[in-house]
Amino acid sequence: MNRVKKIALAGLLAAGSVQADDDLNALLLADTATQNRHTSSDIHWYAESAIEHAVARNDFSANHNQRLSLDLLLDKKISAEWRALLADRLDFNWRERPGRQDAVNTLKEAYLSWQPGLEQMIDFGRINAYQGVANGYNPTDFFRTDAVRSVISVDPSSLKKNRMGSVMLRAQKLWAEGSITAMYSPKISEQGNTAALNPDFGATNHQQRWLLALSQQFTKDIAPQLLIFGSKEQSPQIGLNLTTLVNDATVAYFEWSGGRLPSLMSQALLLPDDTAFRQHLSTGVTYTTENKLSLTAEFEFNGTAPYQAQWAMLRRGSPLNYTRYRMLQQSAQELATRQEMFLYANWQDVMFPHLDLSAMLKMSLVDHSRLTWLEARYHLDRVDLALQFQVNSGDAVSTYGATPQQRSWQASLRYYF
Question: What is the rounded average pLDDT of the residues 232-239?
Fold first, then answer.
């Protein structure tokens, strides 16, 4: 089997029941970097220093910001059946305008895992249980709301891995061609807490939630996953993840969720309840070449976002209403408009070994604003050097043009201990 087909089959496994992928993903030390080469130790950590040059909209002056991040992963085998995992990130920020310094700690994961047999697993604690097979937008990632505490990169994989998990009990049962996973996340606190070192359980556990996920491999190339998600404050939501091999180099995927929900506008602006059956969708293809270039094109749909006429009225209306809507949409990690396109490219070992290039374009198909992001990353034995460039284009009340900074670049150095 050639290398491209192995990559495609890996995507199929990610779509299936393998809820153990949450545990495997917890072993990732970086957002888009390579794995730590020194895997014999139970503890892995790195320090990252970054400088940013940002230009605000309608302002030709530049802001120079700095960041120092410490990222820790402790994965300890206590006995043959017990394992403990802790993942934490501390970010120190120095911003030129407004002139201030702050620190933000993100307790990503902290849980105990009991594996009484090869086919059973029970976990309890704070777990970053993200779902979905799409790359840019995940309708079945039901635990993402209010989970991001500190944004260090707009790369979707970074946003997933560098967020807070939810306190939950998770049980998994595996069999030869599938699995079933059950999660229960209790309510802990009504309100979040933005204090630097607070674990912020109110953000991730402000309501009682549960999830059931069933996966079954029907053929060697197709392993769908069915999900049912519920909470005390909303009707159950149904989800579906499906990935299939088109050929040795191409993977097609489909991710969908649906259920009775109010619109984002009614929630943000406290309008009369307009609960109805609404859908969310991501579908696309990834093509991987023999020379390690992967290209992804994805269509995204958010049925809780405003219709085009409503979006136009919101943009022309009260600035306060527009701000309220965007704050809710961003905390929920939803699309601001109903339709978007997502394009992503990653090329490993471009001109010589260990140099990777990545590019991303997110475009609203409603207001045609765009986010363009580029990264070059060079991997050494213990060091990653990276340069990122980002441009937000569109008018001041568009999906991406509303971002305070119009363009920026960031240089970073990451050292693995």
Answer: 92
Domain borders along the chain are 3-416
**Architecture of the domain whose range is 3-416:** Beta Barrel (2.40)
Residue 6: its pLDDT value, please? 42
**How many whole angstroms separate alpha carbon 27 and alpha carbon 35?**
9
**What stretches of 16-108 show up as alpha helix (H) in DSSP?**
21-26
Mean pLDDT within 308-316: 94
| pTM beyond 0.70, yes or no | yes
Residue 73 CA to residue 176 CA, distance in Å, equals: 30
State the Cα–Cα distance between residues 191 and 19, nearest whole angstrom.
29
Radius of gyration of the chain measured on its C-alpha atoms:
21
The pLDDT of residue 21 is above 60: no
Q: What is the pLDDT of residues 51-106, one digit of tens each?
A: 999 888 766 667 889 999 999 999 999 999 999 999 999 999 998 877 677 899 99
